[in-house]
Amino acid sequence: MVSPLSRRRFLLILAGIGASVVGTVMGFFGIREPAGSRIGESMSGELIGLPEPKRGGGLSVEEAIARRRSRRMYADEPVLLTEISQLCWAAQGVTEGTAGFRAAPSAGGIYPIELFVVVGRSDLESGVYHYSPKEHSLGRIKTGDYRKELREASLGQEWVGNGAVDFVITAVPDRTAEKYGERGRGRYVPMEAGHVAQNIYLQAQSLGLGTVSIGAFHDDQVREVISAPSKSLPLYVMPVGRPL
């Protein structure tokens, strides 16, 4: 009898072979998939490599949980690229390379979550970026400080504009629904977004940063600010800054 673990590995190998064959055929005929169509792929042609995330040190998990709070008041100070890197990794980073498992669990290993970062005050140029877990990199979507526009899309909540950066957690529910139907769309995807948001909370606390989860916003406006595909559903806006 084949164990569940062995069966899973066998299926992952088959999936990898299938993807390789499809890619080879498409390349032979000069066919290209649109940017961001594959899971975890950058939605921008320009990739900015992120510093290697730390996997040890800092607060213990217990301390981070005990100290975690929603923090809405931030100092007028930058959030550094190394910190953005760590937060991206905590949210959606690859933690096991062979199978591509990520920091947050996903039903069926489908990973419908797409993470965007709206950068204002940082040693990284202001702009809107999309996180690519596979490369642990940011793809620049557009340049400029869009925190004001994101604040307006978030019903004028001032902390969205005052955070040094804003993380926007979106999902492509069709990915999960393809396997799990409407239960996947309405149950599993929101559950997964919650896992991602809590990881950002705990990592921010460990870095001495503050954040708060925002759910009150106009979906279409947020999607426009971050230039997300039409099938993307914004689920969280999370401003991050140094707490006062």
List the keywords.
single chain, 244 residues, alpha+beta, NADH Oxidase, 2 domains, 7-stranded antiparallel beta sheet, two-stranded antiparallel sheet, 9 strands, 40% helix, globular
Explain what the structure shows:
The chain is α+β, with helices and mostly antiparallel strands. The chain has two domains: 1-32; 39-241, NADH Oxidase. Helices cover 40% and strands 19% of the residues. The protein has helices at residues 4-28, 61-67, 81-92, 147-153, 158-162, 173-206, 219-226; strands spanning 47-49, 94-96, 101-102, 113-119, 127-132, 137-143, 165-171, 210-211, 233-241. A hairpin with a 4-residue loop joins strand 5 (127-132) and strand 6 (137-143). Helix 2 (61-67) crosses helix 6 and helix 3 (81-92) packs across helix 6. The longest helix is centred in the C-terminal third of the chain and has 34 residues, at 173-206. It is globular and about 45 Å long. The model is unreliable at 8-39 (pLDDT under 50).
From the 3D coordinates, which CATH architecture of the largest domain would you assign?
3-Layer(aba) Sandwich
* CATH homology group of the largest domain: NADH Oxidase
- CATH fold-type name of the largest domain: NADH Oxidase
CA distance, first residue to last residue? 59 Å
Q: What about the largest sheet?
A: 7 strands, antiparallel
Query: How are the strands of the largest sheet arranged?
Result: 1-6-5-4-7-9-8
Question: Layout of helices and strands, plus pairs?
Answer:
Layout: H1 4-28, E1 47-49, H2 61-67, H3 81-92, E2 94-96, E3 101-102, E4 113-119, E5 127-132, E6 137-143, H4 147-153, H5 158-162, E7 165-171, H6 173-206, E8 210-211, H7 219-226, E9 233-241
Antiparallel strand pairs: 1-6, 2-3, 4-5, 4-7, 5-6, 7-9, 8-9
Helix pairs in contact: 2-6, 3-6
